[in-house]
Amino acid sequence: ENKIIKDYKTKDSKSWKAAEKDKKIAKDNHIKTTPTAFINGEKVEDPYDYESYEKLLKDKIK
């Protein structure tokens, strides 16, 4: 069995713990899809649109 797969099946492995932490962050932030981006805690509405990032960054700089 592949080491990566084995690590994700072993609850005390570093990989398992990292995946669980990521799942909790996703759940707490209501993340349903990837990619999802946040800037200073604010969700970028369209992560594929440059203007979404630009507007949010400009608003944060002010």
Structure notes:
This protein is mainly α and about 60 residues long. It has two domains: about 1-30, no CATH class; about 35-60, no CATH class. About 55% of the residues lie in helices and about 5% in strands. It contains three helices and two strands. Strands 1-2 form a two-stranded antiparallel ribbon. Helix 1 crosses helix 2. The longest helix is centred in the middle third of the chain and has 15 residues, at about 15-30. The N and C termini lie far apart (about 55 Å). This is Thioredoxin domain-containing protein. InterPro entries: Thioredoxin-like_fold, Thioredoxin-like_sf.
Number of domains: 2
β-sheet strand percentage? 5-15%
Query: Number of helix segments?
Result: 3
Number of beta-strand segments: 2
Question: How confident overall, as mean pLDDT?
Answer: 87
Question: What brief labels describe this structure?
Answer:
two-stranded antiparallel ribbon, about 60 residues, 2 domains, mainly alpha, about 55% helix, 3 helices, single chain, 2 strands
